[in-house]
Amino acid sequence: MKLYTKQGDTGKTSIIGGRVDKDHLRVEAYGTIDELNSFIGKAVSELEQEKFKDLIDDLTAIQHELFDGGGDLANVMKERHYKLTEEPITVLENRIDALSEEAPPLKRFILPGGAPAAATLHIARTVARRAERETVSLMKEIEDVSPVVQKYLNRLSDYLFAAARVVNYRLSIQDVEYIRSGDVFK
């Protein structure tokens, strides 16, 4: 099997049930989800298996869920069944709560960084926010888009923030507070 088809050479790409321009809002949104998935894979590769098994398990499940969400955004079939459901959102909320309890209390904004895996998770968080913004733009333009994807991305960015903080905490790396920040978390 060849990896190239040459069908995209004219600036169009195939989606589930049709073809669109490669710069279509739909392609931008699911393409950013693909980028996010890649950064999460990079973070997993930077995590020590024994110390971070729970996070690796979370992140691996999230990678599958991102494929589901991206597929949901790429689907323009008249009859469609969305793969991403509300259940993973509840799982993320529970994990955010648990991770937030593990890390030290937060009073101010922090600078992204710390351990390599934490820094990668912060990058993933910002890409998740961009994917969410692009999904919102798509939802404004095209009404027939699953709202679960946007909600999932919103919660995922919070999870990635909490996970980055826990990585630093478990490695005894202190988060660096933004020095001009007032107390914003109470």
Automatic annotation (TrEMBL):
Leader peptide range in chain numbering = none
Question: What Gene3D superfamilies does the entry give?
Answer: Cobalamin adenosyltransferase-like
In this chain the Cobalamin adenosyltransferase-like domain maps to 3-167
Q: Does the keyword Nucleotide-binding apply?
A: yes
| Membrane-spanning parts | none
Q: What EC number(s) does its UniProt record assign?
A: 2.5.1.17
Q: Which InterPro entries match?
A: CblAdoTrfase-like, CblAdoTrfase-like_sf, PduO-typ
User: Catalyses which reaction?
Assistant: 2 cob(II)alamin + reduced [electron-transfer flavoprotein] + 2 ATP = 2 adenosylcob(III)alamin + 2 triphosphate + oxidized [electron-transfer flavoprotein] + 3 H(+); 2 cob(II)yrinate a,c diamide + reduced [electron-transfer flavoprotein] + 2 ATP = 2 adenosylcob(III)yrinate a,c-diamide + 2 triphosphate + oxidized [electron-transfer flavoprotein] + 3 H(+)
Pathway this chain belongs to: Cofactor biosynthesis; adenosylcobalamin biosynthesis; adenosylcobalamin from cob(II)yrinate a,c-diamide: step 2/7
Q: Which domain of life is it from?
A: Bacteria
Instruction: Kindly list the GO molecular function terms attached to this UniProt entry.
Output: ATP binding; corrinoid adenosyltransferase activity
Keywords tagged on the record: ATP-binding, Cobalamin biosynthesis, Nucleotide-binding, Transferase
Tell me which Pfam families the record gives: Cob_adeno_trans
User: Which BP terms in the Gene Ontology apply to this protein?
Assistant: cobalamin biosynthetic process
NCBIfam families associated with the record? PduO_Nterm (TIGR00636)
Q: How does it assemble?
A: Homotrimer.
The entry assigns this protein to a family as follows: Belongs to the Cob(I)alamin adenosyltransferase family.
Q: What is this protein called?
A: Corrinoid adenosyltransferase
Lineage per the UniProt record: Bacteria, Bacillati, Bacillota, Bacilli, Bacillales
Q: Which gene encodes it?
A: yvqK
